[in-house]
Amino acid sequence: MDARRGGGLGALVLTLLLGLSGLTGSASAATPCTEIPTVGGIPPWGFHTGPYTTRAGSFAKGHGNINLAANTVSGVICQQDRAGVIIMSVRHQLVYHSHYAELWGYPGNIMKIKVRVTRSTDRRCAVGTVGRATLFASYNGVRSDSVQFFFPAACKDQDRLYRGPQVNNQVPPL
Fold it and tell me: CA–CA separation, 50 vs 60, rounded Å?
């Protein structure tokens, strides 16, 4: 009976080690933003700024719904950087949208939204703070998407511009 327990315990330890070895790659990249699902395919609107790396120091992702006829938007956004993690809800009123925008010298779709911080580990960026975000999705095969956050003084550490081929942005046309 003791031999079986030892064998069972050994098998359990081996199973746990094998399981953990398979998780180390994804576990090292786990962040509080993993609570926000990455939406596959083309959602009504959505973005991610590429993988989180300590060298880059920050990343963001978000997604939601939009009704261009009613000029409304909803959704969730998460941003993580050295200052901390903030999770934001998207305010109901769509500030601006256009299918005929130009940014960074390229044509594309743009939308401007207001966001409200709903959770924060950045001690200087309080829950309830309202900021803005501009999402730009280039088209015609160009990869020059961008996401930019603007916050008032207390949350200035969360102001960010993400731009380049690693940014994947889906902004709906008119």
Answer: 8
d(CA 74, CA 62): 11
Distance CA 133, CA 111 (A): 8
**For 24-33, 50-59, 147-156, which range has the lowest pLDDT when averaged over its residues?**
24-33
Q: How far apart are CA 136 and CA 112, in angstroms?
A: 9
Question: Where is mean pLDDT largest: 14-18, 100-104, 149-153?
Answer: 149-153
Predicted model pTM: 0.77
Q: How far apart are CA 83 and CA 35, in angstroms?
A: 19
Give kind and range of the element (H or E) at residue 137. Answer: strand 130-138
Q: How far apart are CA 59 and CA 85, in angstroms?
A: 10
Question: How is residue 4 annotated by DSSP?
Answer: H
| Beta-sheet pairing, 45-48 with 168-170 | antiparallel
- d(CA 12, CA 62) in angstroms, rounded, equals 39
Q: Contact at 8 Å (CB) between 133 and 110?
A: no
- As a whole number, mean pLDDT of residues 11-37 equals 44
Cβ(108)–Cβ(89) under 8 Å?
A: no
User: What is the total residue count of the chain?
Assistant: 174
Q: Please, are residues 44 and 97 in contact by the beta-carbon 8 Å criterion?
A: no
Measured between alpha carbons, how far is 7 from 87 in angstroms, rounded to an integer? 46
